[in-house]
Specification:
By secondary structure, the chain is α/β, with parallel strands linked by helices. The protein has ten helices and twelve strands. It binds the ligand O=C1O[C@H](COP(=O)(O)O)[C@@H](O)[C@H](O)[C@H]1O.
């Protein structure tokens, strides 16, 4: 399918968003970097707070900002979050496909695919260079690809079947193998793709450097298939690990490890709902908390992290 470029998406989306932008973010070097960048238009990152941001709330956010230094956007509805997330992903797709002719993206399962629901719609469906996307999974359940629990199936049904990404660029796990075999196989394939130059290697960490990692977070603070208290949280060598005792069903899974997650160029969380509010508070709002949930361990070194939240998820901040 022929792809065509459109004029940059208009600013009206950002204008209309009911978005609280944490005050620290406006002045942080990270924010300035993004705003100064040609490739990531500042329309995505409004330079002013919403008029509906109350003074007390803004003070609270500002003091949180002092300690956390994380960019967080809070949306009035999940639909507005989906609008902004689609634009964020599209901007990065344009950046990486024009800069190096490929865009390596790691998808999560769970709600993430639903939050990406605007991508297979105009203007993105026929303006992005889908043929240059290379799609991976941050984690996968070791079940047949046709199983409703499969993260691959979720993505196929919700996104991949609706956009022209070549099937050869979609790296699903080998579902005929055991969890251990599937993790080994996935890691070998990633190593091959690093050798071929499809995935870049972080010169600092020596781990693969994906262009974008899209993360969900469970109510327990887990990310990918890295669960609180599980030894895999501390894995330092493997690129891809397996577990057979996931506290969330199904028990057999494979997952990228923290060294890989923290080597990426861009990482984005999308989290909604009251059920997640405690974990969001623990990660973003409680810097004194010595017990770090897995989500709090996501800090791309040399990369950039952003959180997309709805008001329910942010309600305890
Ligand atoms: O089991 C999983 O859960 C997390 C979080 O899912 P969510 O529905 O609460 O967003 C997900 O990110 C992960 O990929 C999945 O395997």
């Amino acid at each position: 399918m022929q792809t065509r470029r459109r004029a940059p998406h208009s600013l009206h989306l950002a204008e209309e968003l009911y978005t609280f932008v944490y005050l620290h973010y406006l002045y942080s070097p990270y924010y300035q970097t993004l705003c100064d960048s040609d490739s990531l238009p500042s329309s995505l990152y409004p330079q002013r707070t919403s008029s509906s941001l109350s003074l007390s709330h803004s003070k609270e956010l500002a003091s949180m900002a002092e300690t956390k230094k994380l960019p967080v956007q809070i949306f009035k509805s999940e639909d507005l979050l989906a609008d902004s997330l689609a634009k964020y992903v599209a901007d990065l797709s344009n950046k990486f496909t024009s800069e190096r002719g490929a865009f390596t993206v790691c998808l999560s399962g769970g709600s993430m695919i639903d939050y990406l629901r605007k991508l297979p719609e105009p203007p993105y469906v026929d303006s992005l260079e889908w043929s240059k996307w290379q799609v991976f999974w941050l984690d996968e359940r070791v079940v047949p690809k046709t199983d409703p629990e499969s993260n691959y199936k979720l993505a196929l049904d919700g996104l991949l079947s609706k956009v022209p990404i070549p099937p050869a660029n979609v790296y699903a796990i080998n579902d005929t193998l055991s969890a251990e075999g599937a993790a080994d196989d996935y890691e070998s394939r990633l190593r091959e793709l690093v050798k071929n130059g499809v995935i870049t290697l972080s010169p600092t960490s020596g781990f693969p450097k994906f262009d974008l990692i899209l993360l969900g977070m469970g109510p327990d603070g887990h990310v990918a298939s890295l669960f609180p208290g599980h030894p895999l949280v501390h894995e330092k060598k493997r690129w891809v690990a397996f577990l057979t005792d996931s506290p969330k069903l199904p028990p057999e899974r494979i997952t990228l490890t923290f060294p890989v997650i923290n080597s990426c160029a861009y990482a984005a969380f999308a989290v909604t709902g009251k059920e997640e509010a405690d974990a969001v508070h623990s990660v973003l709002g409680k810097p004194e908390n010595p017990v770090k949930l897995p989500a709090a361990l996501v800090h791309p070194k040399g990369g950039e992290l952003i959180w997309f939240l709805d008001e329910d998820a942010a309600s305890k901040l």
